[in-house]
Design brief:
The protein contains seven helices and ten strands. By secondary structure, it is α+β, with helices and mostly antiparallel strands. α4 crosses α7.
């Protein structure tokens, strides 16, 4: 894996940008960063279609069987949550911090807004208002429509989501921003009704810039969003 790039002058974390990665390679890169346990940010533009599933999803899940029957690869993430459909042009982003880093904090399990401040800032710079909010609780099988964690909303629609894995050494917080909503595959693989799919939105719907061109800006925004806390706020 290539080394992390040096941060921009106003960024506090080194970052890496990959402009064409498979879903499997992206998940593998997150595993490697987590194993290393060094501070860093990673953003990638995906090149293929695949379903990623969290560690708690059983192999007997009908989602896996339906994806495999359609020839869609299934990739198991190291993090929690249920299933997510990824497609070409989707953006994925990751933050890794050592457990001893004060930016992890005691509230990391609930800190979606803090770890996800970079994507919100990057979207705002592109003219898109977004915020991390409670999930809609519509379908437990599709991660951003479930009742767990937080989701990234643009208006009333769900744009993206995030999940975590924590080891004794480091924290991984990673998320995704879809290029488009693949309605047919969401029906076929996740058996989602149209009413649930209608709650999803993607970058294309919001007239965001092309993923490949926007990825470095997203990475830099995430790196800038992780400043060192003031001394009195640091966790020892």
């Amino acid at each position: 894996m290539p080394p992390l790039s040096a941060p921009a002058p106003d960024a506090t974390l080194p970052f890496r940008v990959g402009l064409s990665l498979s879903v499997a390679a992206s998940v593998s890169a997150d595993r490697e960063l987590l194993a290393r346990g060094r501070p860093g940010v990673r953003v990638a533009v995906l090149r293929d279609r695949a379903v990623s599933i969290g560690v708690g999803v059983p192999d007997s899940s009908p989602v896996l069987a339906r994806a495999q029957a359609l020839g869609i690869p299934v990739v198991r993430r190291p993090s929690g949550g249920s299933g997510v459909l990824h497609g070409p042009g989707d953006l994925v982003w990751s933050v890794v911090l050592p457990r001893t880093d004060p930016r992890v904090g005691r509230d990391f399990v609930r800190a979606y807004g803090r770890f996800g401040a970079g994507p919100v800032a990057a979207l705002r710079a592109a003219g898109i208002d977004s915020a991390w909010t409670e999930p809609p609780g519509l379908d437990p099988g599709y991660c951003v429509l479930s009742d767990r964690g937080c989701v990234l909303r643009a208006g009333a629609a769900v744009l993206g989501g995030a999940a975590q894995q924590v080891t004794g050494r480091a924290l991984l917080h990673h998320g995704f921003l879809p290029r488009r909503v693949d309605r047919a595959t969401l029906r076929d693989v996740f058996a989602l009704p149209d009413a649930a799919i209608d709650r999803l939105i993607a970058l294309e719907d919001l007239s965001a810039r092309a993923s490949a061109a926007w990825a470095p800006e997203l990475a830099n925004a995430i790196a800038r969003s992780m400043p060192w806390p003031r001394t009195r706020d640091r966790v020892t």
